[in-house]
Specification:
CATH superfamily of the largest domain: Dipeptide-binding Protein, Domain 3
Structural class: alpha+beta
Low-confidence stretches: 1-15
Number of helices: 17
CATH topology of the largest domain: Dipeptide-binding Protein, domain 3
Helix content: 25-40%
Number of domains: 2
Largest sheet: 7 strands, mixed
Mean pLDDT: 92
Radius of gyration: 24 Å
Oligomer: single chain
Number of strands: 21
Shape: globular
Strand content: 15-25%
């Protein structure tokens, strides 16, 4: 090799070397196994460690990643997937078609579905190996969500990921054998994970920076602020109040930039629809609670935080978004609904039914940072119509854990939606109850049928109408109460470059995404 080639290569190594890009996480990571990525926090890390079959570009189009190509028959029922030749897992073994089929089978294990139900991939009718790098999918019905399903498919090496009854205790959960451009360094755990660029990566979308560090931010907002200002994190989310202060120059010392973007998500009060565990199994009570949405409180906050009231199950970024405007909530209607349902106010102001049961509910919500919040405003509004809510504050992430256990009546936590509305089917269907994803235990046979039809309807107009009907059913039944569409409030180190967002408002889950980040280091 001549000298004129050696110098540029050395300089290239120097350009991309430097301290790890440090990313703050709002909660501990439960697993880095792609089969178990139930929450956004795990996906943020795993997206750098594992490649998908197909990726999305920054414009939302599908591009090959592990796959070299795919061929779909004219009737949409026969699909041939071809893996890129020469790819290996991070332990040096070849990525083979058998790995895809084995991963697909593992997705149907009850212990996997209880944690993370990839219903789109799991319900593909048949995957058959046709060669070392070829897999054929045969479908009974054409599937409109096919490419979105393949996007959500991150295979694992079949010889290593044999899952027992307790998959969250698998030894590879924090030491994964990935396929992506970064490998997890030894010593990783729930609160601290370091990634190093993997020299053996031969895939389509390499990483630009040498290393990443992911750490859980402290619960104390003052300490978290100190760490951001001290550049212990280069990237992290803020609560809206401190983001507002950062924009106004009252937080930080000039090293931080405030950035925000709409996200395909919504903040939500989830209702326990299990008749064995909660009074909220009665849809009339749920409808009454929906009339106590603290919209005046949320409207007043728009002076400080740009969040819209949510009225559609599918957010504005989705092609299934319903633009119809719902009527504003009314405490008068809430009181009337409760009266008709047989809940009468007593001398203490609390409502009781004919059995003498008091309408008292338990709500779990994460600690707030800035005094009175929408959870408290919601409870105050309900108290005016005779509903007592015991508001219990928890660490971030705990309301979701309690929801999966069915503890309490109301859970307050946000929800991120997927690329295709079908991704949300386990959350609202009877099949989701069986698998464990439908923690609300909401059940409606019409919703079950509409989700099944929507998965297979290939005409875009008819398919959209199916999801609009799902939205109407769920808005009528109120298994949950949406508050506002999500906004990501971010603090960035001024030296961090390459930060962009996919159509869902995420900095990961597309290419280049975080693989294109770098630090401008002197």
């Amino acid at each position: 090799m001549g000298l004129r080639w050696i110098l540029p290569l050395c300089m290239a190594g120097l350009v991309w070397a430097g301290p790890p890009i440090s990313v703050a996480l709002d909660k501990p990571v439960l697993s880095l196994n792609p089969l178990l990525l139930t929450r956004e926090v795990e996906s943020q890390v795993a997206d750098l460690v594992f490649d998908r079959l197909v990726a999305r570009d920054e414009h939302g189009g599908f591009v090959p990643q592990l796959l070299e190509s795919w061929e779909i028959s004219r009737d949409g029922r026969d699909i041939l997937l071809k893996l890129r030749p020469g790819l290996t897992w991070q332990d040096g073994t070849a990525i083979e078609a058998e790995d895809l089929v084995a991963t697909w089978r593992m997705l149907s294990l009850p212990q996997v579905r209880k944690i993370y139900d990839l219903v789109g991939v799991r319900t593909l009718d048949s995957l058959v190996v046709e060669g070392p790098h070829s897999v054929r999918i045969r479908l009974k019905r054409a599937r409109a969500s096919l490419l979105s399903d393949l996007y959500n498919f991150q295979p694992v090496p079949r010889r290593s990921y044999v899952l027992g009854a307790q998959p969250l205790q698998h030894p590879l959960n924090y030491a994964p054998i990935g396929s992506g451009p970064y490998r997890v360094l030894p010593g990783a755990g729930a609160r601290e994970i370091q990634l190093q660029r993997w020299d053996g990566y031969r895939g389509a979308h390499p990483g630009r920076w040498e290393a990443f560090r992911f750490g859980v931010q402290p619960h104390d907002p003052a300490e978290y602020g100190r760490q951001l200002k001290a550049r212990e994190f280069h990237f992290g989310e803020l609560d809206w109040f401190r983001h507002y202060l950062l924009r106004r120059g009252a937080f930080g010392d000039g090293n931080l930039l405030a950035q925000s973007t709409p996200k395909a998500s919504f903040s939500t009060f989830w209702f326990n629809c299990n008749p064995k565990r909660s009074l909220l199994a009665d849809g009339r009570i749920r409808r009454a609670l929906s009339e106590a949405l603290p919209w005046t409180f949320l409207k007043a906050q728009r002076r400080l935080r740009p969040e819209r009231l949510a009225s559609s199950l599918w957010p504005p970024q989705s092609w299934a978004f319903d633009q119809a405007v719902e009527p504003l909530p009314s405490l008068e209607r809430a009181a009337s609904i409760l009266e008709e349902a047989g809940w009468k106010p007593g001398s203490d102001g609390l409502r009781r039914d004919a059995k003498g049961r008091v309408l008292k509910l338990v709500m779990f919500s994460a600690w707030g940072y800035s005094g009175r919040d929408y959870a408290q405003a919601f409870c105050e509004a309900l108290r005016k119509v005779g509903v007592e809510v015991d508001l219990r504050r928890t660490p971030t992430g705990e309301p979701y854990v309690l929801a999966t256990k069915g503890e309490g009546d109301i859970w307050d936590f946000p929800w991120n939606t997927g690329l295709d509305p079908d991704n949300e089917s386990p959350l609202f269907t009877s099949e989701g109850i069986q698998g464990g994803t439908n923690f609300m235990r909401y059940q409606n046979t019409e919703v079950d049928r509409l989700f099944e039809d929507g998965r297979h309807e290939t005409d875009p107009t008819r398919r959209r109408n199916l999801y609009l009907r799902i939205n109407a059913c769920i808005q009528r039944d109120h298994p949950m109460l949406q508050l506002t569409y999500g906004v990501a409030y971010l603090a960035l180190d001024r030296r961090l470059r390459g930060v962009g967002f996919n159509p869902l408002g995420q900095t990961y889950g597309y290419v280049p995404g975080r693989r294109g980040w770098w630090l401008e280091v002197p």
